[in-house]
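Many introductory courses stop at the sequence. We go one step further.
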Amino acid sequence: MSSILTKVSSDMVAAMKSGDKILLNTLRLTKSELKKIEMDKGDEFNDADAVVVIRREIKRRHEAIELY
């Protein structure tokens, strides 16, 4: 498990405790995408892969904001 994925998981717990639903939902989506790539790559998954996934998700969110 990459350190970024671990950080996302711990941030999810903090968001749950604080009641920040927007942050929690964002982190859940991010973790879901990270887990998909982790399953595909297996032991080869690292923080560089996680950064690529997170950047892709940020781009998707920005495009969705522009559309709506």
